[in-house]
Amino acid sequence: MDKVKLTRLQIGENIHTALGIPRSTIQKIIDLFYEAVKEGLSEGRTIELRGFGTFYVKQRKGHIGRNPKTGEQVEIPAHGVALFQPGLELKRAVWNLRR
Asked: Please, is 92 exposed, middle or buried when counting C-beta atoms within 10 Å of its C-beta (0-12, 13-18, 19+)?
């Protein structure tokens, strides 16, 4: 299987082909979707898209790390990390893909 990226523009083009909606309108919708997800996550909310998956933020503890170039110790503060948990339908759809 080829590992080819599917970009935001290609997704918009697929929607345009399927529905005939103007490309500029589709790109605005996609941008608004991205902004809604980013805003929700930045507020600590979970974004659940049934059948597709769930976006959420997990808190990481602060710790001491090392600069790989200098070996110097660096304090890494506690911070949030955005994560995605695929839904059951998405898992089933990609289950048989080969690498």
From this structure: exposed
